[in-house]
Amino acid sequence: MFEIKKELKKLPDKPGVYIMRNENDEIIYVGKAIKLKNRVRQYFQNSNNHSSKIKKMVSNIDHFEYIITDSEVEALVLECNLIKENRPKYNTMLKDDKTYPFIKVTINEPYPRVLFTRLVKKDKAKYFGPFPSVTAVKDIIDLLRKIYKIRTCNRNLPKDIGKERPCLYYHIGQCNAPCQGYITQEEYFNDIDKVLKFLGGNYKDVIALLEERMNEEAKNLEYEKAILTRELLNSINKISIEQNATNTDLADRDIIAFAKNKDDAVVQTFYIRGGKLIGREKNYLTGVEEEENASIMNSFIKQFYSGTPYIPKEIYLAEEVEEEELLSKWLTARKGQKVIIKVPKKGQKERLVELAKKNAELIMEQDAGKIKREEARTIGALKQLSQMLEIPLIKRIESFDISNTAGYENVGSMVVYEDGKPKRADYRKFKIKTVKGPDDYASMYEMLKRRFIRAENESKQLIEKNIELSLGSFTRYPDLILMDGGKGQVNVALKVMYELNISIPVCGMVKDDNHRTDHLYYNNKEIAIDKSSELFKLITRIQDETHRFAIEFHRTLRSNKQVKSILDEIPTIGDKRRRELMRHFKSIDLIKVASLEELKKTPSMNEKSAHEVYKFFR
Known about the structure:
There is one protein chain. By secondary structure, this protein is α+β, with helices and mostly antiparallel strands. The chain has 5 domains: 4-86, GIY-YIG endonuclease; 102-239, no CATH class; 253-366, Nucleotidyltransferase, domain 5 (2-Layer Sandwich); 379-559, 2-Layer Sandwich (Nucleotidyltransferase, domain 5), CATH 3.30.420.340; 568-616, 5' to 3' exonuclease, C-terminal subdomain (DNA polymerase, domain 1, Orthogonal Bundle), CATH 1.10.150.20. 44% of the residues lie in helices and 18% in strands. The protein has helices at 4-9, 36-42, 52-59, 72-86, 134-148, 168-171, 185-199, 204-219, 223-239, 293-305, 324-335, 347-366, 368-389, 440-464, 487-499, 534-567, 575-585, 588-593, 596-600, 607-616; strands spanning 16-21, 27-33, 63-68, 102-105, 114-117, 126-128, 253-261, 264-273, 276-286, 314-317, 340-342, 396-405, 408-418, 421-422, 428-431, 480-483, 506-511, 517-522, 525-528. Strands 12, 13, 14, 15, 16, 17, 18 and 19 form an 8-stranded mixed β-sheet that branches. It has a 5-stranded mixed β-sheet with strand order 9-8-7-10-11. α5 (134-148) packs across α9 (223-239). The chain is globular. The chain starts with a helix and ends with a helix.
């Protein structure tokens, strides 16, 4: 249970981003703060000073989380990324969707330019930023052009050298006119190197030059010029804060770090997509007291990436990991392209890893009680189940259910829980192929047989290819099978286990009058469950999730079948034309009232087919 008053007391006195969520765990608001402690508390105090929109937002807050950053500017950039990615209900959204500015140096050109841009491309140019102040960026670009006399024109050099007269900037001493060949390419690149050093953080030379100029101007009583020079110095200070929240190489990568305390650990994963930090996830580990850091990281990577639907090209770690080469090979096989695992030692990537580690340490420090509660409702509940059934520790549970309407569109669902949590990437749907009519036992038999035969076949293929088993949805067997029913359903599963020579415990969920599982059927016995226990709550969550997944799949198929059956009765209308009709008109009702001319305009429809559809609905 998340207690807002208690969590407010734990807020750090650091800059960062806070994320408000509702009871459905949806992000409803994202904000930034110089001091998280002060800013977040304000929402829950002095409500009379709040606007009606803020009052409504606060009334919908069920819990919140936060990400600490190294600076307010970094928090601002991260806030922007999170808002664009999640589009929270109570955030004001910009219709033009502007992004923060970058400084672009076109080092891919023979005579590079220094440009203002909001768009980062894969064009071999060098990008610096993002920066929160447009004015500061423009001032800096103007300053660099004046000091190092960098060209501003779009001429195609060296092809166009000498074709036209030099521009005004040459005549006022702000360009060395490479368009005329007045400066060699080598000399020009020496100046570009100085620009790159400045933008990379080496401001010393330029600041010294400006300070000398400002003092000289003040000495000569040229106060207006001195003020302008001072403003340039202020612009440099504004952009001098290094940005950790965005990478300009557009890479997709995950940043992973953890913190541990005795037997528990918190793993913090940052998601970089398209070069932007767009979100994070925290995972709790237990049983790490005697584990080395490299072993903990190894275990997490295998468990986390065996089920995640997306694997990035690069994974950056705060700690060295065991079997790095083997893990990289396994992830590469799963992704289908090269996956790199690194421990960065310097630069922006190292700072991102350090930021993830700081957040993990903060969570570990402040969420000790939450970790214990989370462990009780997941690992603790599984321990209760293991003791009740007298079998070794259960980690993976697969739960199966059948859904149909009077035998129409039989479907099955497989829901997976690992360490007491849903593993949605491993969920699977089955469309029953061999059973006609409402025969749940026969449908369950087909589904289980297909699931475990496929497991055997996929495992053999991986072994033949000398690839480590991926621990995926089919190649990994469960520690326990849960059936949505009692003795009859359990016997169907046991029959499949016997025929395939597989040994997996099978347990049935026996329901009370309220359709809640209050007994488990195991080894021909019904075992009562304490309704106040964490085990009862876990079984209820698994039961509800299994039903939901099966019913949603059945509802989708039934809806699609209804659409298909109507259009398939029309001569000359096959799958392709049916799809095009639905894509073009969006609904059957609109197809019914469409004119002949409108039907003819549908892609893939000829005149004969259009006539057939038109006649069918009249």
